[in-house]
Amino acid sequence: MTGADMALPAQDERTLPAAVLRDVDTRPLEQVLAELQTLIEQHGHVIVICSQAAPTAVLRRLHTLRSLLESDRIALFRPDLPPLGLAVLARQLRQLASCDLSPGVLASAGRLLIHYIHAGALLGSVARLDRVPVDLKQHAKSWMPGSQFAVLAHPQPQLVRLGPEATLSGPEFGTWMLVAKGQLQSDWVTGTLAPSWNVQGLREAPLPAESPGWWGTGKVVEFCTYLPDLSVLYQLVTSVRRGTCHWCGIDVIGDRCVFCSAVPPAPEGAPALTRRT
Which top-rank group of organisms is this from (predicted)? Predict the structure, then answer.
């Protein structure tokens, strides 16, 4: 993780601790390089999970570190999830890290598990929201005193103005919900949305530091539903067909290797595709 507040408490006794690369873009390059090299030597492979809300300087530094180490054992994972959803996904990978999964399958699992996460927020304004489509009428209403908006960012964007009939499309399977409250005072998420989604458990966490920037306002109550049980996560991952990367030889799920970025060879007669740096 690139932020300590994204390392959620362990879900169970098997959940492995997160390694936090602090201040990646501000600390001396040599320090961060040595820290990352140590992690590789200790664990063999490293999956770096970085929010899309992180500053460009952070991403640039991560690519620099990977290039300097000349290593295909570092996977940079930046899924399109709000900060709280990303923290939940990272914890799920930490749960799975205790199982008998190869590094390539574990790193690929993130792209699978993201489909089982519903992430959104209750906002006091959508005037600066650019992660979800906002029409002109909704934008105008966001300037009205007391207006609140329920937003689903993943898996399908939704935005509704809060009212007696307001609702969001939720998961069609049993989940738990994690809630992080910012400056907005409202119980709508825990009192209305959670029961309507039939969540099986509810927990609270501090609001990630990157959340106000991601949602465009500090007046936010962020939420995320997820599958909490390790046995269910493991069954999902192991039920998917695995392949072998033709470039680096590790087991993977899907078409693109998360470590070396190679894709399967093109069929005979088609333009060749090898890897993307």
Answer: Bacteria
pTM value > 0.85: yes
Tell how many helices (H) and how many strands (E) occur in the chain. 9, 10
148 and 57 inside one domain: no
End-to-end CA distance of the chain: 21
C-alpha distance from residue 197 to each of 89, 174, 192, 194 (Å)? 20, 9, 9, 5
CA 122 to mean position of chain CA atoms: 19
Q: In sequence order, what are the residues at sequence separation of 6 or more whose Cβ sits closer than 8 angstroms to the Cβ of residue 145?
A: none
pLDDT in tens, 96-109: 999 999 988 998 99
Is residue 67 located within the same domain as residue 154?
no
pLDDT at 243: 82
235 part of a folded domain: no
pLDDT in tens, 106-157: 989 999 999 999 999 999 988 889 888 776 556 555 556 678 999 999 999 9
Residue 51: CB atoms within 10 Å: 28
Percent of the chain with pLDDT over 70: 91
Asked if residue 106 and residue 133 are part of one domain, the reply reads no
Count of structural domains within the chain: 2
